[in-house]
Amino acid sequence: MRFRHGLLGTAVCLIGTAIFSLGTALPVTALAQAGATPAGASGTTYVVTYLETLPARSEDAAAVLRKYRQASAASVGNLRSVLLERLDRRGQFVVLTAWQDPSGWTSHLAGERTVALRKQLADLRSAPIDDRVNVSLSMGPMALPRNAGAVFAVTHVDVVPTAKDEAASAMQQLGEAGRKATGNLHFEVTQQASHPNHFSVVEAWASQAALDAHTSSASQVAFRDRLGPMAGALYDERLYKVLD
User: Does position 16 have pLDDT exceeding 90, yes or no?
Assistant: First the structure.
């Protein structure tokens, strides 16, 4: 059974260098380090940014996040910027960005506009922002669909460090099978640059029924069976919609 409702703090191991605390005013140099990719990383950089805000202030947070999405899209080196809102939990969002290289992401993170917008969220947050900085593992097209009624699944997968290579192989096969599944609109798998035993899966499906059918497929069941002995945390899948 897929895990869909666990809190981020208990379902995943938060990475210290990937967390920006909105409750503390940080200088630009510190902001550039938060969520930055390690020295030596290169190539297209994929960032999954989790945001948890006060449920009663979710509309206010969405307004700020729309501005953040626009600022990201306008940043040098940005390849995409998409804002998702969780379907079953008010106040939880994900921003999916991609960058030509790690320097584009770190420059954006330290930029005046980014710093200002993240500070605006300070009174709205219920948890720190969690930036997961990843590299490609199994990719389809860069663009994310905006089909009416599309359901997005964003999953953080954590395996024990000694199993990272076997897990990477399983995750690649997951991506290949997912893109061929009926009703799939997008399926990508990325690997965390600083912690290669952590992975992010971004899926888009034409409907909830299509996602449910994939969940029940033989290939998905086989993948979960293979992943189980390697898992370092619960399979943290969350469902979203695009927020325009």
Answer: no
Q: What's the per-residue H, E or C state across the chain? A: CCECCCCHHHHCCCCHHHEECCCCCCCHHHHHHCCCCCCCCCCCEEEEEEEEECHHHHHHHHHHHHHHHHHHHHCCCEEEEEEEEECCCCCEEEEEEEECCHHHHHHHHHCHHHHHHHHHCCCCECCCEEEEEEEEEECCCCCCCCCCCCEEEEEEEEECHHHHHHHHHHHHHHHHHHHHCCCEEEEEEEEECCCCCEEEEEEEECCHHHHHHHHCCHHHHHHHHHHHHHECCCCEEEEEEECC
Indicate whether 33 pLDDT > 70.
Answer: no
- Distance, in Å, from the CA atom of 150 to the CA atom of 49, rounded to the nearest integer, reads 20
User: Lowest-pLDDT range, 24-38, 71-85, 119-133, 171-185?
Assistant: 24-38
pTM for the predicted model, two decimal places: 0.83
Query: What is the spatial distance between Cα 161 and Cα 23, in angstroms, rounded to a whole number?
Result: 32
> What's the rounded Cα separation, in Å, for the pair 94 and 84?
5
> Residues 170-203: pLDDT tens digits?
999 999 999 999 999 999 999 999 999 999 999 9
Q: Please name the residue that has the structure tokens 């969002």.
A: 93
